[in-house]
Design a protein that fits this description.
Number of helices: 10
Low-confidence stretches: 1-15
């Protein structure tokens, strides 16, 4: 038995892993939204890559890396959902006494965007608006929306498509004009 085949120190040569570092970080950052979590999970992905015994069977290292990363992200999000939330009353009191400062122009921009969004939603037919909100705000699947509203899947998809197209048109038009409706 060859001692080198019994124990592997790496899946890919070190330059191979470095080659995919930026792509992996972008992939994780898009799915997590946190640079710190992305960096932590990247380490887990690399560790799992190092455990692969027959790396010569990997035809597309980047695709394989993305596959492992997808599983790691899924498991991370599952753990986060199951994790017990702790309440820190001192931190809450601190935030209540010293709220983060929002500049007046930033607050005005947020309020303006909120008013534009409410106006655009008001322009949608009622059923389209409900389908759109159930999908975007409540994160329901098309099947769940169909069951809740008593509509066919085809109708839900059609209303969702029409609402998204209308919202995009209204939002783009309002942004181009730069004024309140």
């Amino acid at each position: 038995m060859n001692p080198k085949s019994h124990h592997r120190s790496a899946v890919l040569p070190q330059p191979g892993l470095e080659q995919y570092q930026k792509a992996l970080h972008r992939f994780l950052l898009q799915r997590l939204g946190s640079a710190e979590d992305a960096a932590d999970l990247a380490q887990e992905v690399y560790l799992r890559m190092l455990r692969v015994e027959h790396n010569e069977l990997v035809r597309s290292p980047l695709d394989y890396l993305y596959g492992i990363a997808s599983h790691v992200v899924y498991q991370f999000k599952l753990r986060m959902r199951r994790e017990v939330v702790t309440f820190d009353s001192q931190a809450l009191e601190q935030l209540a006494e010293h709220p983060p400062e929002i500049r007046a122009d930033e607050l005005a921009d947020r309020l303006d965007a909120q008013q534009q969004l409410e106006w655009a939603l008001g322009q949608l037919p009622a059923t389209q608006r409900v389908v759109f909100l159930l999908r975007k705000r409540d994160h329901l699947s098309n099947q769940q929306i169909a069951e809740r509203l008593g509509l066919s899947m085809h109708t839900v998809k059609k209303y969702l498509f029409q609402a998204q197209a209308r919202m995009r048109t209204l939002w783009t038009h309002e942004m181009a004009q730069g004024e309140n409706p």
